[in-house]
Each structure stands twice: as C-alpha cells, then as structure tokens.
Amino acid sequence: MGLFILRRFGVMLLTALCLTFVVFFLTNLYPNLEKLAKTQGNQRMSDEQVANWLENRGYSQPLLIKYGQWLGVAPGFTNTLSDGQVVGNCIRPGIAPEDAPNFCGVLQGEWGQSTVFKDDVGAIVSKRLGNTGYLMFWVLVLMVPSALIVGVLAGMKEGSILDRSLSTFSIITTATPEYVSGVIFIAIFTSSTVGLKWFKGTATSAMDNPTFENFFLPVLTISLYGMGYIARMTRASMTEVMTAQYIRTARLKGVSFPNIVMKHALRNALIAPFTVIMLQFPWLLNGVVIVETLFNYKGFGWALVQAAGNNDIQLLLGISVVSVFVVLFTQLISDIGYVYLNPRIRIS
User: 62, exposed or middle or buried, with CB in 10 Å at 0-12, 13-18, 19+?
Assistant: First the structure.
C-alpha cells in the first residue's frame, strides 16, 4: 500500500506540473497579455507601447522562465522604470525593493496580486474557497444520503413500480441543468409574482449569516443535479449484487430480505458509487460556477467568473492550482478507498 501511494504521489506531481503549465501557457498568450496591459495602463495604447509595457514588467520573457518564476524555482524579475519605480513579481506593497526575496512563487506561498481585487491571490482564494466549502458540505449532507437511499430502494427489486418511479425521478433530476432548476426555484419560492415567499433573503447574505431561508435553495439546486447520477449508479450496482450467487444462497437459507440487503448486499453495492461520490468533489468545486453566479453567492466559482471576465491572470492561475490539487487528491482518496472496499484488489 505504501508503494502504491508513493507511486500515486509521483503521478500526481507530474500531472499537476503538466496541467498548471497548460493553464499558464493559455493565460499568457499575447492577446491576454495585451488586454492586461491596456487594462492596467491605457486602453488607447499603441502596439509599441503595449510591447514596452510588457517588456518592462517581465511578461516578454521566455515562457519557461516565467513559469519557473511563478512556481518559485527561478529568480524573480526586477526592473526599474523610467520614472524610477521599481517593479517585479517579488515586490509587494509595503516592502522595500531591496528587501524583496529572490524567489517568490507558489512553492514559497506567494501567489501574486490580483489585478481586479487589488489583494493577495492566496487570501482571495482561501476566503472564496471557504464559502464554497461550506456550501459543498451541506450539498453533500443532502445529496449523498438521499441518492444512496433512492438507489438502494430502486435496486432492491428491479422492475417494480418503486424502481421505475425512482429511476424516472433520477433521470429527470440529472437531465435538468442547474440554471434551469435554479431559475424555477427562484420563480416559484422567492418571486412575489407567484406568491410563494417561502424563502426570504439572498444567498449573498448567507455568507455572513447562513439560515435555512437564504441558503437552502442553492443547496437544493446543486444537490438535485448530482443526486440523480449517484442514485442511478447505486441502483445499477445494487441490481447486479442482488442477482449474485451468494445472495441466492442467503435466500435459500431463509435469511430475511432486510438482512440480505443490509448485511450482504449493501457493502458490495457501495463499491462503485463510492468512486462516483468522490468524483463529485471536483465537480462541486468547479460546477458551482453557475449556481453561485445565479444566486450571487461569492464563492470559488464566483471568483473564477470574475477572474476570467476581467482577465485577472494571477487569480486564474491561483484558482487552477486549487482545482488541480482537489481533483488529484480526491482521486487518490478514491483509489485508496476502492482498494479497502474491494478485497479482491487488496489481495491481488
């Protein structure tokens, strides 16, 4: 197991380097850098002025050097402008240029400055990630148990009326995008036109004072979309397990149906859904973009939209690092959990 985890960490490190380099390459394409120069400088800048602005601030360096500086394995860029101002990727407000460190990248905990929010990228990401983490927690609390119950009930007796009803419900929830169900919930439960003012307040106020009235609708919107997929996977796994030979043997021995389900079938039926549940973490982290934008909940997805819409390169890179880490870490946990749940893999 230790060798397996070590190999997985090596693969994760290589994958993280490749993915972050791709994101770094895309965000540092010349059209993006030109837009950054005009945003921070002057919209009427000529092509020559744009080129000088980028060169004076280190954006014209070779891509690998800039990537090394962003990682923190290459010395930072420093330059003195014609007006005497010292600029560089290691120079921070309140720190004298001569006191600035030579290396200032992700490895040193320096993620750069946001050009939109005028704040440290690490502080922005941690704050927005905390808001999304709180949202994800309650989504998982509602989504996972509900999906497992629906899937197990549907898979216990394949082809029954209960199976068909729950399967239809699962398909409908999975086929309905979040922006559709979210708009429907807002129109029905919060709009004064319809009259069902069951939920008062907005998701924006939930960031400071979360209550059932201002926080349940975004949680329900995300949960319904992911619930159907997990339920369908659980139902398929449960149906397969219920037709296994050892289940038939238990029935012939006179074991009651509830004991067959709880003691023999349930654990084996949860092996496949466990992987699916773990894969919901990266989906939740990046899939909340629509819901957070729709309900104006300023979390991780909202920050991603703001960074992309305003060409905030440093914030986009910081968000990509967190996204890559969450995806790779959840996959590692999923692989380890799958090994423990499935004895055949553990023995082999």
Answer: exposed
> How many residues belong to the chain?
348
Tokens encoding 130: 């905390």
Strands 78-80 and 86-88: antiparallel
Phi and psi at 113, nearest 5°, equal -110, 140
pLDDT digits (tens, 9 = 90+) for 107-164: 888 888 888 888 888 889 988 888 888 888 888 899 988 988 888 888 877 888 888 8
Judge whether 231 and 166 are in contact, CB under 8 Å.
yes
Q: Answer yes or no: are the C-beta atoms of 46 and 347 closer than 8 Å.
A: no
The answer to whether the CB of 219 falls within 8 A of the CB of 142 is yes
Confidence band of 202 (pLDDT split at 50, 70, 90)? low
pTM tops 0.85: no
d(CA 314, CA 117): 11
Question: Cα separation of 16 and 328, whole Å?
Answer: 8
Q: Which residue has the higher pLDDT, 38 or 94?
A: 38
**Of 96, 99, 60, 52, the residue nearest 77 (C-alpha):** 60
pLDDT at 200: 66
Closest by Cα among 159, 309, 147 to 232? 147
* Amino acid residing at 33: L
Q: How many CA atoms lie within 13 Å of 227's alpha carbon, on the beta-carbon side?
A: 27
pLDDT of residue 194: 59
Go through the domains of the chain in sequence order and give each one's CATH number. Answer: 2-110 (no CATH), 122-347 (1.10.3720.10)
Side-chain-side CA neighbours of 248 within 13 Å: the count stands at 4
Of the candidates 307, 304, 278, the one whose C-alpha atom is nearest the C-alpha of residue 292 is 304
The Cα-based distances of 54 to 23, 33, 48, 87 in angstroms read 19, 8, 10, 12
Residue 312 burial by Cβ neighbours in a 10 Å radius (0-12, 13-18, 19+): buried
- Amino acid found at 280: Q
